[in-house]
């Protein structure tokens, strides 16, 4: 932690830090997700500093052969609790679950548990990149993810990605992360898709998603819009990013909307696009600074008290 504090000092951050009321934290993983949750802190959404010397804040402890913590996604509930879900496994019969834990301070976490979101599907190949969103009107949570179910959406071979995946989005609802609704189809844009995330703005709900089609290569980000967080979503846009990007995470900072992404092919880097109107997008990756080796996560705003605790950890 000394190195992180020294870096903040060198950047002249302590004086600014005392004046700031809120900050931004980015969740992510390294390598294959075997060592768990990594966090980075920023004051402006551009300069991200690894916390805890880029060591894991939380090791994966789900009783599962893979026991990974990939794609960690965090959202804060109305009571202040931070809820996190993540990808536990790549594939297989054991790949029907996601991981879950919660925290009041992003440091101390509740015992991890598996949520069997696709347990009623016999032919599911995977459960990838779960995300959370709190529905203020329904006063419950949506958990959504992408899965390939054998025999579904496979008729159009142009939609397939590597290893003949054909993903669509599914979701459940919950009020307490103990009891869950029946799993339902969340959104089918008409093509193979993964990595959905939501941004609420002016009564609309913007879904940022990855077009996963391989032939011809898409592998880019698009947007669909709904009137509720559960959809229906429609009017999916043309891509607003380059190809070979995934893991979108969206947030509004000052006058701009930012969509961060993981450019996962060579050269591997984290980057972002920004927009003032959610229509016209400009890449600002060259202005960004991220921890080395950062992989698909999520970004949230946090209060000063939480940031102070993270810096001391």
Description:
There is one protein chain. By secondary structure, the protein is mainly beta. The chain has a single domain (2-312), classed as Glycosyl hydrolase domain, family 43 (Tachylectin-2, Chain A, 5 Propeller). 8% of the residues lie in helices and 38% in strands. The protein has helices at 2-10, 13-19, 304-312, and strands spanning 22-28, 38-42, 49-50, 70-76, 82-87, 98-103, 113-115, 128-135, 140-147, 168-174, 184-187, 193-201, 204-211, 220-226, 233-234, 245-253, 256-263, 269-275, 282-283, 299-303. It has a 4-stranded antiparallel sheet. A 4-stranded antiparallel sheet has the order 4-5-6-7, with no helix packed on it. Strands 8-9-10-11 form a 4-stranded antiparallel sheet, with no helix packed on it.
Could you provide a short overview of the structure?
Helices cover 8% and strands 38% of the residues.
């Amino acid at each position: 932690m000394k190195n992180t504090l020294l870096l903040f000092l060198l950047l002249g951050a302590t004086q600014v830090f005392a004046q700031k009321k809120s900050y931004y934290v980015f969740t992510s993983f390294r390598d294959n997700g075997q060592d768990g949750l990594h966090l980075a802190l920023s004051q402006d959404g551009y300069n991200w500093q690894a916390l805890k010397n880029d060591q894991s804040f939380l090791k994966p402890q789900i009783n599962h052969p893979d026991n990974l913590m990939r794609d960690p996604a965090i959202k804060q509930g109305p009571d202040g609790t931070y809820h996190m879900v993540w990808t536990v496994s790549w594939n297989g019969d054991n790949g029907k679950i996601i991981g879950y834990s919660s925290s009041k301070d992003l440091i101390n976490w509740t015992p991890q548990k598996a949520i069997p979101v696709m347990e009623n599907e016999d032919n599911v190949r995977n459960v990838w990149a779960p995300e959370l969103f709190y529905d203020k009107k329904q006063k419950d949570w949506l958990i959504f993810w992408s899965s390939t179910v054998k025999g579904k959406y496979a008729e159009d071979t142009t939609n397939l990605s590597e290893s003949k995946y054909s993903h669509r989005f599914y979701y459940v609802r919950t009020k307490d992360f103990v009891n869950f609704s029946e799993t339902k189809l969340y959104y089918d844009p008409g093509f193979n898709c993964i990595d959905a995330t939501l941004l609420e703005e002016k009564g609309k709900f913007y879904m940022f998603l990855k077009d996963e089609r391989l032939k011809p290569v898409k592998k880019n980000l698009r947007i669909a819009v709904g009137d509720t967080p559960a959809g229906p979503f429609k009017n999916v846009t043309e891509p607003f990013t380059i190809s070979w990007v995934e893991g979108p995470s969206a947030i509004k900072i000052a006058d701009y909307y930012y969509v961060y992404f993981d450019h996962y092919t060579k050269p591997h880097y984290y980057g972002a696009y920004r927009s003032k109107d959610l229509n016209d997008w400009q890449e600002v990756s060259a202005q960004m600074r991220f921890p080395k080796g950062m992989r698909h996560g999520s970004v949230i705003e946090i209060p000063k008290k939480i940031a102070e605790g993270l810096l001391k950890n």
